[in-house]
Amino acid sequence: MTDQISNPPGLLPHMMIMAPHASALGMTVASVETAEVVLHVPFRSDLVGDPERGVIAGGVVTALLDHACGQAVMAALKDYQTIATLDLRIDYMRSAEPGLGVFCHAHCYKVTRSVAFVRGQAYDRDRGDPVATAQAAFMLNTSARRSSKATAI
């Protein structure tokens, strides 16, 4: 499976401004739909974790999963608000293939008043053969909603 990389104008500026690590890692947005995103980190030699094997470091995959899950939450919300990772569980299944970048598909499947729930999977060639999967929960900034309601009264 090949994802065509493009940078939707609405999400990318927030991603880069609010998360400098995404820019430093070279993350790009491959696609955005309601409550779903696909991000990509291209292969770079400075991102290699094991020089003998030539694969992207696990920490890069972790950052990609966390960021993609957060962006899926943003894609699920009607209005922009700050969020924070409450819980992130990652299961690593295998190393990425040497010399390949990594994609991450994330889907925000439930949003409550204060928490959003997301599943994600990182992969190199085929989404059906993941490098790692994630289950995450994000806190929504409920204080911003309360203060905006208070000023409207």
How do the strands of the widest beta sheet line up side by side?
A: 1-2-6-7-8-5
- Radius of gyration over all CA atoms, rounded: 16 Å
CATH superfamily (homologous) name = Hotdog Thioesterase
Just give the CATH class.
Alpha Beta
Q: Estimate what percentage of residues fall within beta strands.
A: 35-45%
DSSP summary, beta strand count: 8
| Series of H and E elements | HHEEEEHEEEEH
Describe the structure in your own words.
With 153 residues, the chain is α+β, with helices and mostly antiparallel strands. The protein has a single domain (12-152), classed as Thiol Ester Dehydrase, Chain A. The protein has four helices and eight strands. A hairpin with an 8-residue loop joins strand 7 and strand 8. The longest helix has 19 residues, at 58-76. The radius of gyration is 16 Å and the shape is elongated. It starts with 11 loop residues before the first helix and ends with a helix.
